[in-house]
Every structure is written in structure tokens, then in C-alpha cells.
Amino acid sequence: MSEQLPAHVSPVLEPVEYPFAQTISDLRHENPPPALISPAFTPPATPGTGTPAISREAESIPVDTSNEEPQRLLEALPEVNCVVRARIPTTTGTEMFLHLYQNNVDNKEHLAIVFGSQIRSQSLDAPRPGETEMDRMIRGAYTGRLYPGRTSSRLEPQSGPSQQQKLKSVVDQIGHSSPVPSAVPRQPPSKITSAPSSSPLSSNNPTPTSSAATAPPASINSPLVRIHSECYTGETAWSARCDCGEQLDEAARLMALPSASSSGGVIIYLRQEGRGIGLGEKLKAYNLQDLGSDTVEANLILRHPADARSYGLATAMLVDLGLGGDTGIRLLTNNPDKIRAVEGPNREVTVKERVAMVPLAWRSHGKQGFNSPEVGGYLRTKIEKMGHMLQMSEGF
Ligand SMILES: Nc1nc2c(ncn2[C@@H]2O[C@H](COP(=O)(O)OP(=O)(O)OP(=O)(O)O)[C@@H](O)[C@H]2O)c(=O)[nH]1
């Protein structure tokens, strides 16, 4: 029997009662386990959601989420609590505030990377019984900046001016007029000079879509938000199988632009590695991909949903950061499921605009970013099988 199988099928995968006994081709064409398809799966032909391939200029394409009710929304939002926040000066010159959250649904340390000092966590700022001013400063519940010898978590008019004067003199010395320098992209994109566009509307109305690359800032009231899922391989191990690292860099770059400084920005960094299946399972999926499966098929063969993620924690964190209700956000994504899911079960958050994440190589016609057969297949599968609002670029 084993000699009838393709050479790449391991003999240990032969017992007939398991899907592993079949060839990958069988699984793909005859027996995809329908019960394992994620409720987050979106048919490829989501109307009105494509991103034109030829022009990478700012495009507004209507998206209406008012009739969409994802099946996996919880009835109520989880509880989240920001336990510590710290200022992180970055290698690009931008500063951000890293917020670490705990919650009542898992034991993971989900993060909010906040650009701009105007976005504050309510749970962090809430007083804790018996805590001292030093306790508050140590857990990051302070306003302004920390400096040696500071004794209060609140800005004090008496001691503040001298520190502000010190800061001003430092700023004057280095020739900056703004206390927070703007970002220097890791790979400076020559054609990308402006923030994404936005235009106000509610999620009950058509949502314009703009390209992150070129759109001028039409509205700066709603902060830019990226809901990012952990990807060790793409963010840390230089993987060219996916564009996760590039997307993270690009989100940070956009949020650090001077044009975004009045509204700020937030990257919600969720610890749902491998679309929620974990790193070990994702690595198995990579091996299946090298054996011929696409990213969705590989997950299904491993008996995982195509996408095992949920976004309730992200919604709760955004609400805690004061971005709930009518404040509205501009969401950086191509994923239609994310848009409605992040709004929460009772529309606790309003997505006013979607901003497309177009791969850098596509926007620059190969001059920047990176290309590989693997990332091409990864993006193609997202578009063709997961309804991503992007159109495959020619030559990739
Ligand atoms: N299971 C699986 N997960 C992958 C694979 N490649 C990347 N991932 C994971 O996919 C997730 C990246 O998803 P996101 O960056 O949130 O992107 P998205 O939801 O697809 O859509 P965008 O918001 O448009 O980027 C991370 O958790 C990665 O670890 C893969 O081949 N298989």
C-alpha cells in the first residue's frame, strides 16, 4: 500500500482511520473536514472589498459591516487589566509606551503598543488600595515623564517647570521642536511620505478603504489601530514565509508619523501565534506547506480551524484605552473578519475606516520590501480562500 503513495508521504501516517492516512491530494480534493472550517472563514467573493491591484494610490472602497454578525463573538467582553506600562525609546527614534495586560480568559501577557501620550489606560490609572506614589510610578501610572528624583505620579506645578525647562534646553540643544522625534523607517520607503487617509463614517455606513502607502490625512481624529497576532517566525526569525514583520514595522511607522501625532495610535499585540494554533503547530503547518498544502489546507490537515483567533481581548483593551464608543478607530487590516470582530458583541468599538496593508514590494513594484515563493503563496491563499481585501499583484 505504501508504495502507491507519493514519496513524500510518511509511512507512519498510513492508518486509514485518520486523515493523515490519506495523501495530501486526497485531503485537499476529497475529504476536507468541513466541521473544522473556522467560523472566521470568509468566502473569497466578499463584495466590494477588493483593493485595486494596478494603482496603489489611495482608494476608498465601501465596506458595510452593519449586517455582519460573526459567529464567534462572545456575549460580553472579557475583563482586562493593564498591570504595567513603560516608555520604550525605539531604534527608529520614536517613543512608544508598552502596556502589558492581564485578563480573565487566558494567562497570556497581551500587549498594547501605544504611540502618543494622549491615549491612556483607565485600568492602569485607577488607584490601587494602599499604593504609594512610588508604586504608581513603578507600574507606569504617571503623567508626563519620569526623571531621577521625581516623587509624584502626577505632574506637579512646583517641580514641573524646572523639569520642563531642563527638557526644553535638551530639546533646544539637539535642535528639535517636538519632544517626540518622528520615526525613521527601518527601510526608508522613497515614495511613502504621508499618513493614511480617513473619512468619517460609522460602521453602519459604507467604510472607505485607503492604502496605507499614499493617502493624505483627511481626518486625524480617530487613532490608527492595528490588531496584530504574534508571529515569532516573521517578527524575530526573519521568515520570508509571511509579511507579519513588515506589517508590524509599517504599522509602527504610520503611527509615528507627525500627521498621526494628534490622534495617536495603538498596536494591540495579541499572543495568538500562528493564527491561534501556537508556534509548534504552525511549524508543522510549514512542513505541510513544503509538502504542497496551502496555509488553510495545512491547518485543516492538522485538525485546526483555518483561523483559530478571536478578538474580544483586543476590543476590551481598546475600550480600556479610551477608544470605545464613538471615538472610532481607523483599522489597519485587509482581513474582513477582523473589522467586524474588533467592534465587539455590542459594537463597543467603532471602526470608522479601514486602511489597507499593501505589501511593500507590491507598492514599490519590487524596489522595496521582499518577495519569496512562500510569501506569494501565503498572500494568495489569504486573498483566494480567506476573503482578504487585497488583489494579487502581478508578478508575485
Ligand atoms: N497557521 C498559520 N499561521 C500563520 C502562517 N503564517 C503566518 N501565520 C500567523 O498569522 C498571524 C498573522 O496574521 P495577521 O498579521 O493578524 O494578519 P491577518 O489577520 O491575516 O490580516 P491583516 O490584518 O490583513 O494582516 C500570525 O499569528 C502568524 O503567526 C501559516 O502559514 N500558518
UniProtKB/TrEMBL annotation:
Regions of compositional bias (Polar residues) in chain numbering: 150-167
GO BP annotations listed: riboflavin biosynthetic process
Record field: compositional bias (Low complexity): 189-219
Domain GTP cyclohydrolase II: 222-350
Enzyme superclass (EC): hydrolase
Alphabetic keyword roster: GTP-binding, Hydrolase, Nucleotide-binding, Riboflavin biosynthesis
Annotated spans, Disordered: 145-219
Pathway(s) annotated for this protein in UniProt: Cofactor biosynthesis; riboflavin biosynthesis
Reactions catalysed, as given in the entry: GTP + 4 H2O = 2,5-diamino-6-hydroxy-4-(5-phosphoribosylamino)-pyrimidine + formate + 2 phosphate + 3 H(+)
Superkingdom of origin organism: Eukaryota
InterPro entries: GTP_cyclohydro_II (IPR032677), RibA (IPR000926), RibA-like_sf (IPR036144)
EC number, UniProt record: 3.5.4.25
One GO MF term: GTP binding
NCBIfam families to which the protein is assigned, alphabetical: PRK00393.1 (NF001591)
Family: Belongs to the GTP cyclohydrolase II family.
Protein's name in the database: GTP cyclohydrolase II
